[in-house]
Amino acid sequence: MPFNELELYLMGMISPSQVSDFDVFTDITSFSVNENKFIFSANNRVTHNSSSLESLLGKRIPNSNDSQKNFKILSIVITDSPLTEDEWDKVDATAEWFSKKGDDGSSLYNFWEATNGQGSIDIEN
Questions:
Q1: Are 119 and 112 in contact (CB under 8 A)?
Q2: pLDDT at 125
Q3: Any idea of the CA torsion for 105, 108, 110, 112, to the nearest 10 degrees?
Q4: CB-based contact 44:25 (threshold 8 Å)
Q5: Is 97 exposed, middle or buried (0-12, 13-18, 19+ CB in 10 A)?
Q6: 14 alpha carbon, distance to own chain's centre
C-alpha cells in the first residue's frame, strides 16, 4: 500500500504544500463495516491543510528539501533452525524486490513505489 500524502510529509518526503486538504473526525458515535466501506457518524469534523499542519505540528525539521530520503538497512533472519537454500533465496528475492528503485510491474508496492519515487532503500549483504 502506498504512503498517503500526510505520511509522506511526516517522513520528510514532500513539503506541506503537497499535502491535500484532509478531514479528521472525532467523537465518533457509530461505526460499521459494509463490504469494503466504513460507515460512521461523528460529532466533530476538522479539515486540515498545509497551514494548519504547520500550526499544529510546527515546521518540519529537516524540511523536505534537506531530509533523508535514501536509507540503508540490514535484514536479519532469526530462526530456530538454519534456513534452507530455497528459504535464503526467498529472503534475498524479497530484499531485492523491496529495495528496487523503480516500478516492479506488480500490484504490490516496493519502498520506492510506496513513496511515489521519493525514497529508496539499500539492503546490502
A1: yes
A2: 64
A3: 70
A4: yes
A5: middle
A6: 12
φ/ψ of residue 17, rounded to 5: -70, -15
Q: Which residue has the cell 520528510?
A: 12
Q: For residue 5, what is the enclosing H or E element?
A: helix 5-10
- The three cell numbers of residue 58 are 510546527
Cα separation, 12 vs 66, in Å, equals: 8
Q: Give SS3 for 24.
A: strand
Q: What is the pLDDT of residue 4?
A: 97
Residues of the chain with pLDDT under 50: none
pTM of the model: 0.84
Q: What does the pLDDT read at residue 58?
A: 94
4 — phi, psi (to 5°)?
A: -85, 175
